[in-house]
Amino acid sequence: MDFSRLPLSEDDRVFRDDLRASLRTHVTDEVIRRDRETGENFDEGVHEGLGAQGYLANDYRTEFEGGFTALHRRIWELEVGRAHTPWFHWGTTAMIARTVESLASPQLVAEVLPGVLSGKTRLCLGYTEPDGGSDVATCKTRAVRDGDGWLINGSKMFTSNAHNSQYVFLVTNSNPEAPKHKSLTMFLVPLDTPGIEIQGIRTVDGDRTNIVFYSDARVDDRYRVGEVDGGWTVLREALKSEHGTLERSADGLQNLSSMFHHGTVMAEAVDTVAAAVTTVRLDGRRPLDDEAVQYRLGRSVARMEAALSGPGMFGRVAVAQTMRDMAPDLMDVLGTASSLPVDTEGAIADGAVEYLFRLAAPTGVYGGTLEVFRNMIAQQELGLGRPNYSPPKKVTT
Amino acid sequence: MDRYELRRLDYTLSEDHTDLQSAYRQFFKAHCSLDTARAAEPTGFDKSLWERLCASGATSMAVPESHGGDGATLVDLTLVAEEVGRAIAPVPWIDHVCATRLLARLDALPSNEEHTLALIGGGSIAGLDPHLGGPSGVRLIPSGSIADDIIVCDGRDVHRLTFTTRCSWVDNLGKLPMAWVDTAAADSRSVLASGPESTASYQRALDEWRLLTAAALVGLVDETLTVAAEFAKNRYTLGVPISTLQGISHPLANMAITVQSGRNLVRRAAWFLDNEPDERPELATSAFVFMAEEAAKAAMMAVHVQGGLGVSVEAAASAYLVRARGWPLAGGDPAASAKHVADIVTARERVHHGLGA
Known about the structure:
The complex is a heterodimer of chains A (397) and B (357). By secondary structure, chain A is of the alpha+beta class. Chain A folds into 3 domains: 10-87; 123-230, Butyryl-CoA Dehydrogenase, subunit A, domain 2, CATH 2.40.110; 260-381, Butyryl-CoA Dehydrogenase, subunit A, domain 3. Helices cover 44% and strands 13% of the residues of chain A. Chain A is built from 13 helices and 8 strands. Chain A has a 4-stranded mixed β-sheet. A 4-stranded antiparallel β-sheet of chain A has the order 2-3-7-6, with no helix packed on it. Chain A is globular. With 357 residues, chain B is of the alpha+beta class. In chain B, 55% of the residues lie in helices and 9% in strands. Chain B has helices at 15-31, 34-39, 47-55, 74-86, 93-105, 114-121, 196-234, 246-275, 282-305, 307-311, 316-329, 334-352; strands at 126-128, 138-141, 149-153, 157-162, 179-182, 188-194, 236-237, 240-241. A 4-stranded mixed β-sheet of chain B has the order 1-3-4-6. In chain B, strands 2-5 form a two-stranded antiparallel sheet. In chain B, a hairpin with a 3-residue loop joins β3 (149-153) and β4. In chain B, α4 (74-86) crosses α7 (196-234), α9 (282-305) packs antiparallel against α11 (316-329) and α9 crosses α12. Chain B is globular, with a radius of gyration of 20 Å. The chains are: A alpha+beta (397), B alpha+beta (357). The interface between A and B is large, with 68 and 69 residues.
């Protein structure tokens, strides 16, 4: 058990200071403002700038392969977070690239990987369908053999960052007659393929995601990842890292759960509210003088710290659920002005809690709903057995 | 505070930790069955279990080496407390170790005196008033019916009270050895310390009491969850185990989340009190605020999962339910603890956000 500050060598300090300087150069006020407006969580200049300096390649590679040491990786993660860098999608690109590297043909790896590491190439996920939800194996988007390639037809929801990406990691149904988990084939589809249309969708937290339509999009077989009808094996590998169920090393230099970044956003908002309630408001009152405010704030701090302590899947649910449970209390203690968004006259604490309340909705949905993770805890941790998903009886008349 | 500070985030237990943990898990398994806990309900105290526990070194470990004890860390003590809760053991261990550690801090454990040795060894029991804000006059003290020394704080002075005739036990939901204690009626009363330093020392005892009570509640919830999950796997409705119904499995998953989050928060809080006490003083009380609320909810759900069998007085679930509510309530309204957390955090964040002290 160890929560101590890490001593930095001269080399570590230089690394951290260089990184901070880079982030100051790239993540300007203008970048932050544009990110808020577009909700893209991505900035090409920032992404390519950090790529050109080798940060992406070093984050991608393991220490053994010449990448960051565990300590530099931790500094990298913390400083990117501290700068509020629009950065949500690099993790997706890296996760897909790792899967491609281990399961795709050497030619495809050679085509994609250099751009991923330089920042010029971004990858996005085509899993969820408009009728699908969190069960990615329920896939209606069809891939049909067409000579030495495939014709793809269908649509995918929540393909975030598609409009800034060059490839989509796509789940298709190549064998509708087969059982669900033997019907899937995965592709890394170039997004400039004719027949692909990207439409933007804004979400309640201000983010932009996309719905992507595939109409007779023709993709060469060399863009296939894994075996034909063997997509489930590929997906399982890729989902492990997305669900945060990979083994953690014991050096205490990794996030405790896969929603830990959201937990930190929540913690910053709580801290901001804690400062704001000590100031005199326009009505001449100091919210903290009200014992009901003291109670709600203290309870929120306690619940937030508990959520931040939850490991793995437990922490993932705890962070999202706690954000939903306490954001209303944090708003209430600041009164009506807490409903004013950032940059609005009289907005309190930069609209931090108004944002937190909206962020709580997708946090419990994307990458798997809270129910998906409660199912996983129930089955994998408590051994409660798989829910019985028998299909409804056919009505005969 | 700086939420991006570079610190380790390592919750792993050392081999010494896991040895200690399994030793006390075994101890209570061997000596404190559910029947043992039940049999002690008319007094809230099992004297022979207490003597065995003390003989294992559970009281002396908590006292600093400088005062004749074995100098365990608070992290160590949370591991023992979790096992006390898992077994719902009818022993005043949490109150006693918090009180003796307080006496050590106040230099009120003169070395080699008979009474000191008795306190370290548990032959004499020390208790304390775990309420925040020091109520005056007559009050309920959780170990009041069995404690030889009762430590209280009136906001300025820390007093040691003794009674020639012990205060009488009152029945209570948590099945604690609780008594109404009238501080004015004590047969002897000595001021141990006065002034801000002594009240700060008392506050530390209150923090430790909350931390160890939170740890005990983690163990308590873990055990009642285990029993409820086992029941659910073996109880069928319409041909399927009820554990596969999400109306059952998701509440059980939530209880597991409470255990995992609460346990790690308890340990992190203990680590900071052990190593950097001024850095995160809000965490111990935060763990208590969280577990005080969640333990009773979780224990109620464990009863509910077992339906008619869960509500029977024979069921383990009902024994855990009453203690899940009664134990934290012995420290008074948990809202007072929440307000204490707010005091600490608002003072810190005012400074951090450049608004002055």
